[in-house]
Amino acid sequence: MDKYSDFRSDTVTRPTENMKKAMAEAVVGDDVLGDDPTVQKLESLSADIMGKEAALFVPSGTMGNSIAIKVWTKELEEVIVEERAHLYNMESTHMTFISRVTPRPLSSNRGAMDPEEVERNIRKPSVHFPRTSLICVENTHNNLSGAVVPMENLKAIREIADRHEIKIHFDGARVFNASHVSGISVKEYAAIGDSLMFCLSKGLSAPVGSLLVGDRDFIDYARRVRKALGGGMRQVGILAAPGIVALTEMVDRLKEDHKRAKKLALAIADLPGIILNPDHIETNMIIFDLSHPSLTIPDFLAKLEERRILALATRGGIRFVTHKDIDDDDIDRAYAAFQDILTR
Ligand code: TLP
Questions:
Q1: Nearest CA to ligand 1 atom 20
Q2: Is this prediction's pTM over 0.90?
Q3: How far is the C-alpha of 174 from the C-alpha of 61, rounded, in Å?
Q4: Ligand 1 in reach of 22 Cβ (< 6 A)
Q5: Are 232 and 286 part of one and the same domain?
Q6: Range of the domain at 306
Q7: Of 249, 269, 284, which marks where a domain is finished?
Q8: Ligand 1 pocket, 139 CB below 6 A?
């Protein structure tokens, strides 16, 4: 039986042999008591790579984002966020649940919010309105096919935040992907944010974990919030060890994922029923819509699954994501399946 080609997400990647070896050999201690040398190594490596004072290992990107919002905001405050960002679409209830603040979603041009609009939406001090205390940015932008948000735009937003003494949290779940395409270092991206979260368990293929980076005071408080949320973990060097492998061995190969996504996007864009501009595919995600006389998106996904190809329905259509466990053969199989379903 053929294996599945799993394009649902880069979160489906399995750990590498080196990661499994690192897990087996990890030197561990009680991390809640500050005793785990492997976690400490991962945190200082992460802080170093991102050019920040300190870092905190968290179980998920969601927890990293939630902690950052909790640290930077108080009740009765508001957070400016791009309307298709993960932080708004998938996490806005976490914002209200954990931090008791409300999101203020703004539209964008492929992830780049208009700086003037951002500034217009910063509330003037008033007893009637919430206070704006935080702006969130995301790069690459998941729901916009992994778009790379231009640095000039991020810098313009940073300038506005500084002028209004507002913090910025950077959802950099896939910031290494952005860096590969733009040639801008992750340090420069991290400098845009007062805090940044990045994930180890997406394209970098570690089984678990994300890092939150920022200045020392921010991370000290973030550590207390992580404990309050039940995220204090004990001999967790066992999970930090593959994270170190992710950062030292898995960053460069993201380029291959980008090439494969582009190859598939260019191949399928001309097929009948596929609505996709391949120029928009810059990193490892393809999101396209379907306009077909008889096939709905669930039908199309079911037909792909019959051919052992997995993809996800998402806002904007169907999502295909390339990653370490997708090779050229998977791309060819996916294209053949598209042809078979759409041109027969
Ligand atoms: N994204 C997941 C799903 O939630 C959709 C995926 O498969 O892409 N920020 C961004 C930009 C993300 O894409 C995600 C996960 C998160 C935060 C949350 O990270 P986790 O899943 O580790 O909590």
A1: 61
A2: yes
A3: 10
A4: no
A5: no
A6: 5-12+253-342
A7: 249
A8: no
| pLDDT < 70 stretches in the chain | 1
Residue 157 in contact with residue 135, Cβ under 8 Å? yes
61 lines ligand 1 (CB under 6 A): yes
Contact (CB, 8 A) for 192 and 150: no
Question: What pLDDT is stored for residue 1 in this prediction?
Answer: 59
Residues 36 and 183 in one domain: yes
Q: Are residues 85 and 144 in the same domain?
A: yes
Does one domain contain both 264 and 206? no
The residue from 249, 276, 299 where one domain ends is 249
Using CA atoms, how far apart are residues 265 and 198, in angstroms rounded to an integer? 26
* CB 251 within 8 Å of CB 176: yes
Nearest CA to ligand 1 atom 19: 61
Q: Tell me the CATH number at 29.
A: 3.40.640.10
Would you say the CB of residue 284 lies under 6 angstroms from ligand 1?
A: no
Q: What per-residue confidence (pLDDT) applies to 315?
A: 84
Report the number of distinct structural domains present in the chain: 2
pLDDT at 221: 98
CA 241 vs CA 20, 52, 196, 208, 244: distances in Å: 9, 21, 21, 10, 5
Centroid of ligand 1 to alpha carbon of 86 (angstroms):
7
| C-beta 210 within 6 A of ligand 1 | yes
Q: How far is the CA of 62 from the centre of ligand 1 (A)?
A: 7
Nearest CA to ligand 1 atom 8: 9
Atom of ligand 1 nearest to the CA of 138: 11
Residue 262 sits in a domain whose CATH number is 3.90.1150.10
